[in-house]
Request: fold
Amino acid sequence: MQKYLLRRAVFALGTLFGVSLIIFVVLRILPGDPLVAILGVEGHSKLTAEQRAYMMRDLGLADSLPVQYGRWLREIASGQLGKSFFRGDTVSAMILHRGPLSAEIALLALVISWLVGLPVGVLSALRPNGWADAIARSISVLFIAVPGFWLSLLVVLALLFWFGYKAPIVIVHVWENPWQNLQQVIGPAVVLGLAQGAYIARMSRSCLLEVIREDYVRTARAKGARERAIVLRHALPNALLPVITISGVLLGFVLGGSVAVEQAFGVPGLGRALVVAIVERDIIVVQNLVLLYAAIFVVVNVFVDLSYALLDPRIRY
Amino acid sequence: MASADGSVLRELLGFARRNPLSVVGGIVGAIIIVVALGAPWIAPKEPLKTNFSRMNKPPDAQAWFGTDQVGRDTLSRVIHGARTSLFVAFSAVLLGTTVGSLWGVACGYLGGRFDLVSQRVMEVLQAFPDLILAMAISMAIGTGLPAVIVAIAITRLPFGGRVIRSVALSVREMPYVEAARAAGASQLRVMGLHVLPQCLAPYLVLATTHLGVAIVIEAALGFLGVGVPPPTPTWGNMLADAITGLVPAWWLVLYPGLAITVTVLAFNLLGDGIRDTLDPRLSPAMLRVLTGSGRRSATAAAPVAEGREEKAPA
Reply:
């Protein structure tokens, strides 16, 4: 087990190293001068050559690419992640300030997706092709197709009409005012959670139906166990593993989707910061935030793999 | 292409009976494609023409979907938006899945160090959440139509690579492939003529199931301001425009999003049916329906382009 853990950790680190390399290469092939991108053509032409050179040095873009990359890796190791071109605050501060809000949204979305998706999936599997199953499946097909950010816009519109909703301007952390904090995160979390819940319902239904066909379930039936007990106690635990796996994969949707959903709700989370940075071409912020999102995705999926060994006694690494 | 002989027709009818929803999806998808292709003739007004005497008008008899902040007709913009959105999604999926699949065939068949390195690269690509990778690439190579297509295509690469690689791995061990090798066929010939055709069914499944994802990513990029640049009407751009005002007009939010949802739903339903039919047991008869009969399927790309047109009206 420990050996496996170590191997997974080394692999994950290798992947993240590759991720950082790709981010760096992609962001440095930006066509043209980064100063033009930042200042615009007019602003750029107003600067003298010395001013330009000074700015490039100040931004850390004057060195050769390997030197820049090496510096970035050192920054990551030390936890001091450069600073924004425009705002002067460091990326680390930005992550610490805005990160908790986005993390709350993602976690809450995960909880909602299981709370909604699993019961719906079980209900579907109890009477496959019955009317409840048909309704549940149509709704999940619909929710998989609806883009989260559009659903968010509709929710915002509705709230605006009936409750005079205003997009939050300042971040309220959960430890400052839990009630206001909940108001900020609940919308994005519900929208993201329902979309993931649709996948979870689908997956748990098909896994359950597969497990129910197995011999040991027939044995349970033969000895006269009640249908509810058969499904919940005998079949469900064995059907859950793939659902957990897909939950890890779905995190990718949540992370990516939360960027657009935060923008739609106007929630000032980390995703919103990423959008602003990308539109402003704030390279340093973009490279660090993209790496952060990828790192979370990779690490969570390592934990998903490990949870297999914990949940299924047949699997031992 | 496929001469309408009885067996093909029977297969199609059988497919329709088994997957009625999928057929509905196919028909709706076909209608949307026709509308997109015929946008200049179907749209009632010019999508870019402003009309300052009719700004921010809710839906009425003159403009069924209302008008936006500068008086452009929303219905016409949604119709023209279908054009851009579908073009981007189709090109991106075609490019990404095709390149990914060819890569996967090479990985599975060649194996060895090439495969090992490729697998690591695909793992790295899959470590990014789709939308975030697409955003970063689209920002880096400039926001134009080709940039958006390439950005979305790159996020599709590892899916094709992984799935097709596993198919190629198993096909490689089949006796007929061994026979071809024994007969002295070059590696390229074996891959192209003997392994590739077997990857066609999973390729089709991949391509159709990823269409919906590509449409959503394109819309999200437009919404976030890194997609196809305005004033080109795309569904994502329209949603971004809609919320620039303090109080967004409901018709500017509702209709473009509805267009995205209906389109994604249609392609997803179609894809589900094709996956159910092709994936569990690759029925050769069904393959023939989708790709045309005979063994002309030496390269994956050509039959797919034809197959797409054929299965849509099914």
Notes: Residues 227-265 of chain A form the longest helix (39 residues).
